[in-house]
Amino acid sequence: MSDAQTPAARPANPRFSSGPCAKPPVFSLDTLQDAALGRSHRAAIGKAKLKQAIDETREVLGVPEDYRIGIVPASDTGAFEMAMWTMLGERPVEMVAWESFGAGWVTDAVKQLMLDANVHEAEYGQIVDMAALNYDNDVCFTWNGTTSGVRVPSGDVIPADRKGLTLCDATSAAFAQDLPWDKLDVATFSWQKVLGGEAAHGMLILSPRAVERLESYTPPWPLPKIFRLTKGGKLIEGIFRGETINTPSMLAVEDYLQALAWAKSVGGLKGLIARADRNTAVVADFVARNDWIDFLAEDPAIRSNTSVCLKFTDPSIHDGAAFAKAVAKRLEAEGVAFDIGAYRDAPPGLRIWCGGTVEASDIEALMPWIDWAYRAELDAQARAA
Ligand SMILES: Cc1ncc(COP(=O)(O)O)c(C=O)c1O
User: Fold this and answer.
1) Is the pLDDT reported for residue 357 higher than 60?
2) How far apart are CA 355 and CA 146, in angstroms?
3) What is the pLDDT of residues 34-92, one digit of tens each?
4) What are the pLDDT digits (tens) for 95-151?
5) What is the CA(376)–ligand 1 centre distance, in A?
6) Alpha carbon of 325 to those of 102, 135, 164, 322, 356: distances in Å?
7) Is 19 in the pocket of ligand 1 (CB under 6 A)?
């Protein structure tokens, strides 16, 4: 297929990566001028910025006043493992996974912490029946499976009077999906996901019951300093006011503050959800119009509006993995879509980030290019046969 047949329009921003995700459309390095660079994070200016990041996170996400929000090391992984290492082991745990990251938490529970764990897994594209879990145990799950494009449809089945804690990795859901705070005892995310911030720092959100667990239970294993949330059996409250355990990047903090300001400018959480839904609807229209591509998530009720995963369904494709890779490579070479190959452990296909920092006009411009790359690759396959 010749270049003459390429679509006329190109996405203005070809960044559709599922993490780090596209920065807000208004981003420029100039917006970081106010960063407290070269200053101590313990100085008044540094502390104020860290506290502002916590306060505005609460405001935008609608986190209840009696929940703690902390900025912790090591991105979402740090936040989630910190919760696992400090709270689990008090009772058995239900480990729930339907894609790669959830599977990683299962490994942590079973092979590292060696917990009394009931493991519930579903194939890529499907979800575990959340109603079938024992909520008298602790439950660890991922709200939005970034590598399968499957999300929990709602928290309705989680009982309000559960005895165990729910630990939720919400990194590709926060700021794009409604999270039922009353059903979540621990929620974690990274700045690098839906708001297009920088990696390295994780957000740890704790319900009063999670704090109660921290103050009443001491795990039998040693905890490194960066996991320690209590001192002398009491929560270290300073962490939840911005007195971080170790040194944060004040540049990343400033960047997150700018992302939050942008989030507020588009209508806060509601506006962000609407943007992600609109982006996903553009992909859904495209899928509906073409019989050679489909969502990896089988049931529309569990389809993600952030990490949208697609599979090629054309039976004439010989080698699905090679085909999908070649399509992604073609799009990258054309400069119209970066980083949209499926995750390395996921079934072959494409993954298009539809979170709120991506513009619907860019998703619209991308769709004809996917059609073009698919046809170009079919041609290449025919020529090679
Ligand atoms: C669901 C989920 N959990 C955890 C992670 C790890 O996040 P981080 O690299 O920010 O620690 C990711 C990253 O893509 C993710 O999608």
Assistant:
1) yes
2) 11
3) 999 999 999 999 999 999 999 999 999 999 999 999 999 999 999 999 999 999 999 99
4) 999 999 999 999 999 999 999 999 999 999 999 999 999 999 999 999 999 999 999
5) 33
6) 24, 41, 42, 5, 26
7) yes
> Which of 21, 11, 20 lies closest to 276 in space, CA to CA?
21
What per-residue confidence (pLDDT) applies to 1?
Answer: 44
* 13-23+267-384 and 29-264: identical CATH topology: no
Residue 2, pLDDT > 70, answer no
Look at the domain 29-264 and name its fold. Aspartate Aminotransferase; domain 2 (3.40.640)
Mean pLDDT of 360-383: 97
Q: Which residues contact 376 (CB under 8 A, 6 or more apart)?
A: 1, 330
**Architecture of the CATH domain 13-23+267-384:** Alpha-Beta Complex (3.90)
Assess whether the C-beta atom of 258 lies below 6 angstroms from ligand 1.
no
Q: Which residue's alpha carbon is nearest to atom 3 within ligand 1?
A: 101
Is the CB–ligand 1 distance for residue 199 below 6 Å?
Answer: yes
pLDDT digits (tens, 9 = 90+) for 245-264: 999 999 999 999 999 999 99
Domain ranges across the chain: 13-23+267-384, 29-264
Query: What distance in angstroms lies between residue 280's CA and the mean position of ligand 1's atoms?
Result: 21
Q: Ramachandran region of residue 151, left (φ > 0), alpha (ψ -120 to 50) or beta?
A: beta
Measured CA to CA in angstroms, residue 243 lies from 53, 172, 230, 298, 382 at distances of 12, 26, 13, 44, 61
To the nearest whole number, what is the mean pLDDT of the chain? 97
Task: Report CA(169)–ligand 1 centroid distance (Å).
Answer: 8
- How remote is the CA of residue 318 from the centroid of ligand 1, in Å? 32
Q: Is 171 in the pocket of ligand 1 (CB under 6 A)?
A: yes
Structure tokens at 145: 């499976």
